[in-house]
Design a protein that fits this description.
Blueprint (H helix, E strand, L loop, with lengths): L1 H14 L13 H16 L3 E2 L5 H23 L14 E3 L5 E5 L12 E7 L5 E3 L13 E9 L2 E9 L5 H13 L5 E8 L2 E8 L12 E4 L9 H5 L4 E3 L4 E5 L2 E5 L3 E4 L3 E5 L9 E5 L2 H24 L8 H13 L2 H6 L2 E3 L5 E3 L1 H10 L3 H4 L2 H18 L9 E3 L26
GO cellular component, one term: bacterial-type flagellum filament cap
Keywords: Cell projection, Cilium, Flagellum
Protein name: Flagellar filament capping protein FliD
């Protein structure tokens, strides 16, 4: 049951608003209790209204909540949840971001100078790939019936079943199996390769690197499957054309390896390997200056603000109240327009903020106290946080809905799930 719900939730994320998770998405029980109490208080006086049945509205509400969460996390990542911590996040540099990218994950309150690292990339981590037989697009030689095969990935084994009536072609069979595998979300992706009018079914693992204690990331067979075997041999699905390999690199001359191209260095830097360095070449990573870090932080903050506004604007043609939400955010930004403009942050007609990085950098560099110069952003972020939390608690306030009845003031009862009706929208297409 848990796996089924996970698959539904993953499908919901892909369909509505796929957003990355951060450490701020994990909460203590006291924080969850506080959220629940806020919902109870919010709904105590809320009127009853008819639940929405429009699919576009459901998509809008769920996406609105997800976008509000993303804005909250952007501010949190910049230190906006801590007293005096806003925009204190340090930034990392890479001398060649096309080969190695880096971000700083160390303590932001440390006065000690962070060391620099020289990285040489000898090989990137790669996935396992199975390339099947290249077949002509002719009628299959299988008899009608139900066939199955198994894919073992990690400690889990998955069986795939399909029924043939004997009229399918080789390409139709390959496409059908590709859809089965891709819709299963088991960590293996399927695609078709073509060569001289022939097609092959290619299976590629999402994971990279050599699994600990194993030689393969996944295996395909039909030796002990429940239905008729023969698919694996016919299509050549067990043919490993490229084995998985670890990333190999050197840090300050010390050779190391990793099953992925993503790793940490001394809990200071988060590194992504993107290419192989040439002989005697290395990529230097370290911390940017405080002025450069501040410029990056402000740019990232405005990027999060702009992303939320654009997401809300994308629903203006179908959701009348999205204009109200945009107007509220524009009102918050307009209160700081003069301070923003003098710092290289310009409000545009659509409500977004255009960043002039050169002027922004010059303002920070020439200011005797950069923290004081950009102090207005603390108030700006504080208001954005309150608004994003409000939206997360009750995104239904930005939906046109029919009120059935208003509650009798002072003689009402608690309905904690009324404004949280959007939570049920996750499953409306699957239950």
């Amino acid at each position: 049951m848990g796996a089924a719900l996970a698959a539904v939730y993953n499908h919901y994320l892909a369909s509505y608003a796929p957003k990355g998770l951060t450490r701020f998405d994990a909460h203590k029980s006291s924080e969850l209790r506080s959220i629940y109490n806020s919902m109870v208080k919010l709904n105590k006086e809320a009127p009853w209204y008819l639940p929405t049945t429009n699919q576009e509205t459901k998509q809008y509400v769920v996406a609105l909540k997800e976008n509000a969460r993303q804005l909250h996390n952007t501010i949190a990542l910049l230190g906006g949840l801590e007293e005096g911590g806003l925009l204190s996040k340090k930034s990392a540099f890479s001398s060649n971001p096309e080969l190695v990218t880096a971000s700083y994950i160390g303590p932001h309150d440390s006065e000690a100078e962070s060391p620099c690292f020289e990285i040489e990339v000898h090989a990137l981590a790669s996935p396992q790939q199975n390339t099947g037989l290249f077949l002509e697009d002719t009628k299959i030689s299988f008899s009608p019936g139900t066939y199955s095969f198994d894919i073992t990935a990690g400690d889990m084994s998955y069986e795939f079943q399909f029924t043939l009536d004997g009229t399918e072609t080789n390409r139709q069979l390959q496409e059908r199996i590709a859809r089965l595998i891709n819709n299963s979300a088991i960590g293996v992706k399927a695609s078709l390769a073509e060569s001289s009018s022939r097609t092959s079914l290619v299976l590629t693992s999402e994971a990279t690197g050599i699994p600990q204690g194993k030689t393969d990331i996944f295996k395909v067979n039909d030796d002990h499957t429940s239905k008729t075997p023969g698919t694996v041999a016919y299509l050549g699905l067990d043919n490993i054309s490229s084995k998985a390999a670890d990333a190999v690199y050197s840090i300050n001359g010390q050779r190391q390896s990793s099953p992925t191209n993503h790793f940490h260095i001394e809990n200071l830097f988060e590194v992504n390997l993107k290419g192989v360095t040439s002989e005697a070449e290395s990529v230097r990573i370290g911390l940017k200056t405080d002025i450069d870090s501040l410029t990056d932080n402000i740019t990232q903050l405005m990027g999060g603000y702009n992303a939320f506004l654009r997401a809300a604007a994308s629903f203006q043609n179908t959701q009348a109240k999205s204009s109200q939400l945009i107007h509220e955010f524009e009102g918050i930004a307009s209160d700081y327009e003069s301070s923003m403009k003098s710092s290289g942050l310009n409000l545009t007609p659509d409500g977004t903020v255009q960043v002039n990085r050169q002027l922004l950098h010059e303002t920070a560099e020439q200011s005797p106290d950069a923290a004081q110069t950009f102090a207005f952003l603390k108030s700006f972020c504080s208001r954005l946080l309150r608004k994003s939390n409000q939206i997360s608690l009750n995104p239904m306030q930005y939906v046109e809905k029919k009120v059935v009845a208003y509650k009798n003031p002072g003689h009402n009862f608690i309905s904690p799930y009324n404004a949280a009706v959007y939570s049920g929208m996750m499953f409306n297409g699957y239950c």
